[in-house]
Amino acid sequence: MQPSSSDTTTSPRMAVVVACVALFTDMLVYGILIPVLPLLPTVTEVGPSATGLLFAAYAAALVIVTPVAGRVVDRRGPRGPLLAALAGLACACLLFTIGGPYWLLLTARSLQGAAAGLSWVAGLSLIAATVPLQRRGACLGLAMSMVSVGVLAGPPLAGWLAELGGHSAPFLFAATLLMIDGALRLAFVRPTPPPCDDPATAMDVLRTPGCWSVVALILIGAAVTSCIEPVLPMQLAQGFGVGATGIGLLFALLTLVGACLNPLVGACLPRVSPRLPALTGVAAAATGLLLVGAGPNLPVIAAGLVCLGAAIALLVAPASALVGVQGAKATPPAIGGAYSLYNLAYAGGLFIGPTLSGTLTERIGFAPACLAMASLLVLSTAMFTRLPRKLAAMPG
């Protein structure tokens, strides 16, 4: 028998609030780590390659846990995974406050990624299970926008707190936010069955014609975002004497440019070929990497970060729109499956970017590594020839 009382069902409005707060908190912790983690003594001792692996561990755990989380949510609903994700992220924050040894930080980073896999799948599924289909796309988009807000707020906040109270201060602050987040999940998320009107999976979307080029675009956009995270903070600290606050502000500049340009690029997509912003994004990313790698002073490096921020919008905005089109083309149409595929592809980019940049920096140096990554980006443009010429002409 279907419950009818509001006390035993999750309100659609509160489902959106809980999912938005969950994604914001997750990405705030992700952003907090950018200016703090590479500067920890334990991390600086192991070198750029191990630092890249430390950053990539988040994405590896996210990729592994996401399919498992999908099955658990399908069988038991989103409440249990949301609470498990909260506990995992809280444990990760507490481990980060210790600051070492390296294996403990690697464990914490993996635990953070696993918590993200549970939280993302369960949060978006909660919206899909409670919000009517005609309003679901807009609510899912609102929840995904919290990702940018969290990443934007994390680095400058972490830098400021770290200089005031040491490396543990940002994580103690995050733990406080987690208590508020946890109260929302406990109070407002009721046992909720998975949606029955959107049964397709990420694999169903992946089998639609033309999907692999869209996946490549998502992956490249994520790799551009993440490749400088493990290596640039140390370069700024050692080469230019920039502290944690300055590093956080520079990364916030990157994210702010991307967040501001993203809706503008999205608004242009119905009138231009998706190939145009994608190719322009690759050019901006390659330019940004060259400026960041060879910049003789902070203004040049800041200009490079502006280029990288613009590249993120130019790559991610068409990717987000195109993956929705692929979901509309799937049989049956799949909003949830499209978002799952987007998350998996994005996590793949988050793994490749730090791993590649850390390895290259350790072997050939920071500036040559940036040149090498810019060259690989230019070569990747061959994949974009399979992107659709017009977004408006496609189904959905």
TrEMBL record:
Any GO CC annotation of this UniProt entry: plasma membrane
Transmembrane segments annotated in the record for this chain: 12-37, 49-70, 82-105, 111-131, 138-162, 168-189, 210-232, 244-264, 276-294, 300-322, 334-352, 364-384
Keywords (A to Z) from UniProt: Membrane, Transmembrane, Transmembrane helix, Transport
Membrane topology: Multi-pass membrane protein
Subcellular location: Cell membrane
Top-level taxon of the source organism: Bacteria
PROSITE patterns: MFS
Major facilitator superfamily (MFS) profile domain location: 15-392
Keyword Metal-binding part of the UniProt annotation: no
Pfam families (UniProt xref): MFS_1
Keyword Ribonucleoprotein carried by entry: no
SUPFAM superfamilies in the record: MFS general substrate transporter
Main localization of the protein described in the UniProt heading: membrane
MF terms (GO), sorted A to Z: transmembrane transporter activity
Name by which UniProt lists this protein: Predicted arabinose efflux permease, MFS family
